[in-house]
Amino acid sequence: MVTFASEEGEPDVLNTVQVAPLVHLNRAHAVIYSCAILGLLYNRAHSLLRSPDHLSFALFLTITVADLVFAFMWALAQAFRWRPVRRQEEGWPGLDVFICTADPYKEPPMSVANTALSAMAFDYPTDRLSVYISDDGGSPLTLFAFMEAARFARYWLPFCREQGRVERCPEAYFRSGAGSGGHCEKIKIMYQRMKERVEKTVERGCVDPGCITCEEEREIFEKWNSGFSRQEHPPIIQVLADSSKDLDISDSPLPNLIYVSRGKSRASPHHFKAGALNALIRVSSIMTNGAVILTLDCDMYSNDPKAPQRALCYLLDSEMSYKLAYVQFPQRFRGINSHDTYGGPYYLGSACFFSRACFREASSPPSPAASLSAGRLPGDSISSETVIGKAHLVTGCDYERGTSWGSTTGIRYGSLSEDHNSGYHMLCRGWESVFCDPEPPAFLGDVPITLNDVLIQNKRWSLGLLQVGFSRYSPVIFGCRWAPLPMAMCYARYAFWPIWCIPVSIYAALPQVALVYQVPLFPKASDAWFYLYAYLFLTAYAQDLIDFLGARGTVRSWWNDQRMWMIRAVTSNLFGVFQFSLQKMGFSGSGFNVTSKLMDDEQVKRYDGGFFDFGAESPFFVSLGTIAVINLVSLAVGLGRSLSGGSLQDMFLQVLLSGFVVVNCWPIYEASVLRADKGRMPVTVIRSSLFLAGVVFCAAYFTFSTV
Ligand SMILES: O=c1ccn([C@@H]2O[C@H](COP(=O)(O)OP(=O)(O)O[C@H]3O[C@H](CO)[C@@H](O)[C@H](O)[C@H]3O)[C@@H](O)[C@H]2O)c(=O)[nH]1
Ligand SMILES: [Mn+2]
Question: What pTM does this model have?
Answer without folding.
Answer: 0.86
